[in-house]
Amino acid sequence: MRELVAEALGTLLLVATVVGSGIMAERLTDDTALALLGNTLPTGAILVVLITVLGPLSGAHFNPAVTLAFLVRGQIAGGLAVKYIAAQVAGGIAGTIVAHLMFDLAPFAASTTMRTGLSQWWAELVATFGLVFVIFGGLRSAPAAVPWLVGLYITAAYWFTASTSFANPAVAIARGFTDTFSGIRPLDVPMFVVMQCVAAIIAALFCRWLFADKQPR
After folding, report:
1. Is residue 201 part of a domain?
2. At residue 217, does pLDDT exceed 90?
3. Per the domain annotation, does 216 fall within a domain?
4. DSSP 3-state assignment of 73?
5. Total domain count for the chain?
6. Dist. CA 170–CA 15, nearest whole Å
7. Structural domain boundaries, residue 140
8. What are the transmembrane regions (predicted)?
9. CATH code at 48?
10. Alpha helices in 161-188 (DSSP H)
11. Given this model, what pLDDT does residue 215 score?
12. Distance between CA atoms of residues 94 and 162, nearest Å
């Protein structure tokens, strides 16, 4: 139960940060680039904090794609993986509500921001592959640095991907319920989720090969 609460709470705080900082940025500036920066830095920072604090409890997935990658590698049981994903999605939606209420908005508002097309889908595949690669690479070479590696990777991926790097099905679903700076039209969410899950599976298999221990010759 503590593991599931940690996953739900971590995803809640992550989404509240993504959505809340987006609302704040949008209210403070009309400059889109500056607003994106105001959305980027808090997201990267909160990931470092949440993974450091909650990692010892649940592994700090906060992301169904990450949980799927661990499942593919046989590092989490199927039943627990399903519970993790349910907790993450529920926590993410709750995070949108929390952010909206802080800024005196209705709890839910379906997004009208269109994010679709081959470039967006490819960007999500790249972003999610990179995230899973960073996690498994970090766990192999520098486990204590994983919070910083993930936070810095997402900070960078906000800017080098066309989609601003959702890389997380729970976050994508939650952002469908906010018609603010960080929103995504609900119609566009399913394809984002598909690309994220495909990327997670590819990355998990690739990392299994790349980081395998060398066999003696």
Report:
1. yes
2. no
3. no
4. coil
5. 1
6. 9
7. 2-210
8. 44-72, 84-109, 121-139, 146-171, 191-211
9. 1.20.1080.10
10. 169-175
11. 54
12. 27
